[in-house]
Amino acid sequence: MSVLLEREIGKKALLMGNEALVRGAYEAGLDYASCYPGTPSSEVSNLLYELQGAGGFRMDFATNEKVAMEAVAGASMGGLNCLTAMKHVGLNVAADAFVNSAITGVNGGLVVLVADDPSMHSSQNEQDSRFYGKFALMPILEPSSQQEAYDMMGYAYNLSEELKLPILMRVTTRMAHSRAVVKTASVREPNEINNNADPSNFILLPVNARRRYAELVSQQTRLENLSEESPYNRYAAPEKTVKRGIVACGIGWNYVNECFPDGCHIPCLKISQYPLPKKLLRDMAEKCEEIIVVEDGQPFVEEQLRGILPTRCNIAGRLSGLLPRTGELTPDNVAQALGIRPAVPHAASQVVVPRPPALCQGCGHRDVYAAINEIVAEMPTAKVFGDIGCYTLGALPPFKAIDSCVDMGASITMAKGAADAGLFPAIAIIGDSTFTHSGMTGLLDAVNCNSPITVIISDNLTTAMTGGQDSAGTNKFEAICLGLGVDPAHVRVVVPLAKNMEEIKQVLREEINYRGTSVIIPRRECIQTLNRKHKQKKANA
């Protein structure tokens, strides 16, 4: 049995942050989860999928984050404890359902787990999901350690059921992927389905929506009071106070503690539950002339403090330039900001050679890009619009094959816009999972406008970039394209192998020169997924 499902109280285990969150959700009586994987949250969905039978809950991989959010909202309406997990830019996709879920409220506990990515280890931006929670007027929890991540899950479900509101749980890459010892507690039994939900709360016609929004706004004072009393927000002041104080948010609390191994001698307010505890902050400001805000991500708290605290109190952090405006915080740059020790620059290693990421040897995407490059070389005005996935590495040497990569599904719609504006040829390349996530609507739009674009759905039969999860459209892409109205004569399937290169190039030429919407599907299984299957088959033999 996985350590994540053990029911022994007091069991200690070395857990990754994402593992601690899964264990916490299981112990809180999780009934149902729906997720779309995205680094740094992917382990959550993978583990839930692996453990669902033994854990007594169900987990589905959704086609995108909006679908996942709506699925758990529906299950929660039936009184069940639900979880969805995604990365920060995935919350953009889920935003419509996410924001409105605070207005409808919930019937069973609902936690929305979002993993932010400061330093953009595997992302397009550094956006901070706490802004979404504030925008939606819902409570936000931000654990500072793996143990706290684990504990907070039970707290979050209790809070959600008490308030009848969804809870946003925000973690960062460092929290999600680092490990620490976690001590387990008792397991709560899952909820039973009930029909207690008031339908009028969930039918957001203006007459209902206005009422529900007013009720949500009226709850904000209670949410602030809960933050003031939260066990996860605490003020620590040494006997001898100084005129400088620290506000440390989430994992920032750990960075501060690492700067003071013998105990912090500076007044420090730890914040892991929002909305902000204004009274605690004002009490602290009475004793401090300067407050330094240590938060990983954007200056979410720092900006708010300027409207909460007296103007005489100097507020410093990422916005003021005391801490770096971009990237992850570290104990070193926090220590420098606190004046404890100067930053010690380290010369670049002369031993370790930089190794940029690259497509795997044997990957079908490589053959696709090789063919594209040969054809594009014949067409100087060509633009190749790329998308989000491991195939984005085609932007790097040796291929340098794509001209854009902006967001999920953008390849098709950007190509359509460019073609409709007169650019020729406009080529879009998109992966199988990304196509079902966000590409289908763009293809429908292109068909409706008869846009002269060539869409390449590079199908490796898996969601490769996030760990090899099942792809929602496997064995369905031809049918999907035909259903969206693409001319059957211009839905072409090829096998991306070196021996088929001449055929692939000929198909590309023909479809690029077709003055309408065409689709080419190069199909060959991901080499990594195939290797895993072979190993599993060998192990089972």
Condensed summary:
The protein has 3 domains: 3-218, Rossmann fold (3-Layer(aba) Sandwich), CATH 3.40.50.970; 234-337, Rossmann fold, CATH 3.40.50; 364-529, Rossmann fold (3-Layer(aba) Sandwich). Helix content is 41%, strand content 16%. The protein has 20 helices and 19 strands.
Helical content, roughly?
A: 40-55%
What is the H level of CATH, i.e. the homologous superfamily of the largest domain? Thiamin diphosphate (ThDP)-binding fold, Pyr/PP domains
CATH class of the largest domain: Alpha Beta
What structural class should be given to the helix and strand makeup? alpha/beta
Mean pLDDT: 93
Strand content: 15-25%
**Poorly predicted tracts of residues:** none
Number of helical elements? 20
Q: Which CATH architecture of the largest domain would you pick?
A: 3-Layer(aba) Sandwich
Radius of gyration: 25 Å
Q: In the CATH scheme, what's the topology name of the largest domain?
A: Rossmann fold
Sheet with the most strands: spatial strand order: 3-2-4-5-7-6-12
Distance between the termini: 22 Å
The largest sheet is:
7 strands, mixed
Q: How many domain modules?
A: 3
